[in-house]
């Protein structure tokens, strides 16, 4: 059974619908990647799950349930009980996510104390251990420092430590390594992978980096224009993509074995902003398979490998990486 | 042949906070002795992680960071000895594209006005400016009807095109590109990289391409220079450095890039680095990578290894690249 189940989620800012019918689920021990470009609705979907949408945004439809209990509409109290304990989130921007006036050790320990999981003394010790696990050098000394005394990469690791310390059952990671250097990114990704495989943590990982998806995800959910356009097992998505957008996204990746200084494949046009989303299929303005039928809204369908397209690729395996 | 741009043992040291009463000041050695040349029509990429000094290197060429020691030469002319008017004249030949097109554009100026700015500063007449702006917009793939729009009305990719058009306004020969596609959506990155490649072919531009994204660099660079804590650890033709990286740091960097090839999942040997990056305020006397290096020897911490030629056009700064020697 799925730990997290999102059904037909809709999020709006006033009259503008930004997330339009997103359905996805994450099981224990599984890493699900939510892939999309800016404005695709991937971050709003995640923020809806953890109940941290900005005041100007509202969940206007659908349902979210965690471990079988629906919590859209649950009281604030319910959310506070599980947020930070069973459900934690790593944000993209470390500096703005940390309290500038609180030592980092205390910030990491905070959720344990708030939820009464540990005494302050125990929590402080656990925080130091967690800081060591995320690769903070000299954690006993660093725990007493303020965020401003640390580099951006270290602040990111502090935030990750704060999210992981209470061993959440669901971890939402929104571009968790975008601000980090590749060698540190590799360490953090390994840590997240271990959490899923060893501790059975369910991970919903938001990223635009197809390399990270290929290395981390068990399943993938591709979003475009506020909707899910394709969903499936990671091998199906990479080797047998069916939606033209997924296919094009894979073809744009500059690859290490591509002849250098040659033209790269580029998706034509621009990522439209929500106020310019076309009716019907939202990718139709950039798609090479478009017909009149695409003026209607395509349905995602059911099954292991789903796609919302009237003219999907046949799904024949062909090697983009050969 | 005189190189278009040449760094000769460049050092950029930033004076820091006082170490306390009677103590010497901390100095941050952002760039600590690099030599590098860029030929006409060539793309030289400087790669490395945050704090390695790659951006400072570009900034020093632009006059935005002090030259503490060493020289930067543009066609043999020493930038450090130029007076203000010579320096201004050099702006015609050397321009820059930064990472964030939002911060690089004045939100209150129309994009045509932004593109025209370098021309206005250089005293072009209005009659010449208008057609030049049209020409530049066409060159970078912007629609002329967008002339009067503000940057906020454009997408990220279009804004970066405006920044590129402005950089090209005075027909420079060298463009310093500091992470030019890092802030863009993946579907837009390849459009901008294709544009940069096409402009190089058509205009014979040279690029100093500063980036942390090695798959992008691999695609666009002729030569690659890997920096670590203010110094070059490996340099050579991009194809060779990618095919056979020699420095343990270059290898770790390449192995850390997540591969989009799903069939390789779990099969790659990733070199995970442990240990800390030393502070550029107190760099070690030996090899700066020694604290994280899997091939480290006792003598690595004693003295900084020299950057030595290992073939006709490759250089390496490592005494134990293959790990054959044991400490």
Structure description:
- The complex is a heterodimer of chains A (322) and B (327).
- Helices cover 32% and strands 22% of the residues of chain A.
- Chain A has 322 residues and is of the alpha/beta class.
- Chain A has a domain at 94-167.
- The longest helix of chain A has 18 residues, at 182-199.
- Chain B has ten helices and twelve strands.
- Chain B has helices at 54-61, 84-90, 101-104, 111-121, 126-139, 156-168, 186-203, 214-220, 238-243, 248-256; strands at residues 5-15, 27-38, 43-47, 69-74, 77-78, 94-97, 174-178, 206-211, 223-228, 231-237, 308-311, 314-316.
- An eight-stranded mixed beta sheet of chain B has the order 6-7-8-3-9-10-12-11, with helices on both faces.
- Chains A and B meet through helix 8, helix 9, helix 10 and helix 11 of A and helix 6, helix 7, helix 8, helix 9 and helix 10 of B.
Strand content of chain B: 15-25%
Rounded to the nearest angstrom, the radius of gyration of chain B is 21 Å
Secondary-structure element order of chain A, N to C: EEEHEEHEHHHHHEHEHEEHHE
The chain-level structural class of chain A is alpha/beta
Largest sheet of chain B: 8 strands, mixed
Main beta-sheet annotation of chain A:
7 strands, mixed
Strand order of the largest sheet of chain B: 6-7-8-3-9-10-12-11
Cα Rg of chain A: 20 Å
CATH architecture title of the largest domain in chain B: 3-Layer(aba) Sandwich
The total beta strand count of chain A reads 11
Would you kindly provide a brief summary of this structure?
The complex is a heterodimer of chains A (322) and B (327). With 322 residues, chain A is an alpha/beta fold.
What is the topological layout?
The complex is a heterodimer of chains A (about 325) and B (about 325).
Chain A: E1 2-13, E2 16-27, E3 31-35, H1 42-50, E4 57-66, E5 69-70, H2 76-82, E6 87-90, H3 94-97, H4 104-114, H5 120-133, H6 139-142, H7 152-164, E7 170-174, H8 182-199, E8 202-207, H9 210-216, E9 219-224, E10 227-233, H10 234-239, H11 244-252, E11 306-307
Parallel strand pairs in A: 3-8, 3-9, 6-7, 7-8
Antiparallel strand pairs in A: 1-2, 1-4, 4-5, 9-10, 10-11
Chain B: E1 5-15, E2 27-38, E3 43-47, H1 54-61, E4 69-74, E5 77-78, H2 84-90, E6 94-97, H3 101-104, H4 111-121, H5 126-139, H6 156-168, E7 174-178, H7 186-203, E8 206-211, H8 214-220, E9 223-228, E10 231-237, H9 238-243, H10 248-256, E11 308-311, E12 314-316
Parallel strand pairs in B: 3-8, 3-9, 6-7, 7-8
Antiparallel strand pairs in B: 1-2, 1-4, 4-5, 9-10, 10-12, 11-12
Helix pairs in contact in B: 4-5, 4-6, 5-6, 6-7
């Amino acid at each position: 059974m799925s730990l997290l189940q999102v059904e037909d989620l809709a999020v709006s800012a006033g009259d503008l619908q930004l997330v339009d019918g997103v359905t996805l689920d994450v099981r224990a021990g599984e890493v699900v990647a939510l892939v999309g470009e800016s404005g695709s609705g991937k971050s709003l979907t995640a923020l809806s799950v953890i109940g941290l949408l900005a005041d100007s945004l509202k969940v206007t439809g659908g349902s979210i349930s965690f471990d079988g209990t629906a919590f859209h509409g649950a009281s604030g109290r319910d959310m506070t009980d599980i947020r930070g304990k069973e459900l934690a989130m790593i944000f993209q921007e470390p500096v703005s996510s940390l309290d500038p006036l609180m030592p980092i050790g205390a910030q990491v320990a905070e959720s344990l104390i708030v939820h009464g999981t540990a005494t302050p003394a125990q929590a402080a010790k656990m925080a130091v251990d967690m800081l060591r696990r995320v690769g903070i050098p000299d954690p006993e000394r660093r725990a007493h420092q303020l965020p401003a005394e640390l580099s951006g990469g270290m602040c990111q690791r502090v935030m990750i430590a704060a999210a992981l310390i209470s061993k959440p059952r669901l971890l939402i990671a929104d571009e968790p390594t975008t601000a980090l250097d590749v060698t540190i990114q590799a360490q953090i990704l390994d840590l997240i992978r271990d959490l899923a495989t060893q501790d059975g943590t369910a991970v919903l990982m938001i990223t635009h980096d197809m390399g990270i998806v290929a290395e981390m995800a068990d399943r993938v959910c591709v979003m475009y224009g506020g909707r899910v356009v394709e969903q499936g097992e990671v091998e199906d998505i990479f080797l047998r993509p069916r939606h033209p957008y997924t296919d094009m996204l894979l073809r744009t990746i500059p690859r290490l074995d591509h002849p250098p200084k040659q033209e790269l494949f580029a998706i034509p046009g621009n990522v439209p902003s929500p106020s310019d989303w076309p009716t019907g299929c939202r990718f139709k303005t950039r798609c090479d398979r478009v017909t009149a039928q695409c003026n209607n809204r395509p349905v995602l369908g059911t099954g292991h490998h789903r796609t919302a397209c009237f003219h999907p690729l046949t799904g024949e395996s062909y090697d983009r990486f050969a | 042949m005189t190189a278009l741009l040449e760094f000769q043992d460049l050092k950029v040291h930033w004076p820091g906070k006082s170490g306390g009463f009677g103590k010497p000041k901390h100095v941050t050695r952002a760039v600590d002795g690099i030599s590098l040349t860029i030929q006409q029509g060539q793309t030289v990429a400087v790669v490395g992680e945050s704090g390695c000094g790659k951006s400072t290197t570009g900034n020093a060429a632009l006059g935005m960071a002090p030259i503490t020691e060493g020289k930067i030469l543009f066609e043999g002319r020493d930038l450090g000895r130029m007076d203000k008017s010579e320096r201004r004249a050099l702006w015609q030949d050397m321009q820059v594209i930064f990472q964030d097109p939002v911060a690089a554009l004045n939100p209150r100026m129309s994009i045509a006005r932004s593109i025209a700015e370098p021309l206005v500063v250089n005293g072009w007449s209005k009659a010449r400016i208008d057609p030049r702006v049209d020409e530049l917009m066409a060159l970078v793939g912007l629609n002329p009807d967008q002339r009067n729009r503000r940057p906020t009305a454009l997408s990220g990719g279009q804004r970066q095109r405006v920044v590129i058009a402005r950089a090209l306004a005075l027909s420079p020969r060298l463009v310093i590109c500091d992470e030019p596609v890092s802030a863009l959506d993946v579907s837009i990155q390849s459009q901008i990289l294709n544009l940069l490649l096409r402009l190089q072919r058509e205009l014979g531009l040279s690029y100093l391409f500063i980036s942390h994204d090695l798959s992008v660099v691999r695609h666009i660079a002729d030569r690659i220079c890997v920096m670590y804590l203010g110094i070059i650890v490996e340099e050579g033709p991009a194809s060779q450095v990618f095919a056979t990286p020699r420095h343990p740091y270059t290898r770790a960097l390449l192995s850390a890039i997540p591969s989009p090839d799903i069939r390789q999942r779990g099969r790659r040997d990733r070199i995970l680095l442990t240990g800390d990056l030393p502070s550029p305020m107190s760099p070690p006397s030996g090899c700066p990578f020694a604290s994280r290096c899997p091939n480290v020897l006792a003598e690595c911490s004693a003295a900084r290894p020299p950057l030595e030629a290992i073939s006709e056009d490759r250089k390496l700064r490592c005494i134990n690249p293959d790990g054959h020697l044991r400490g």
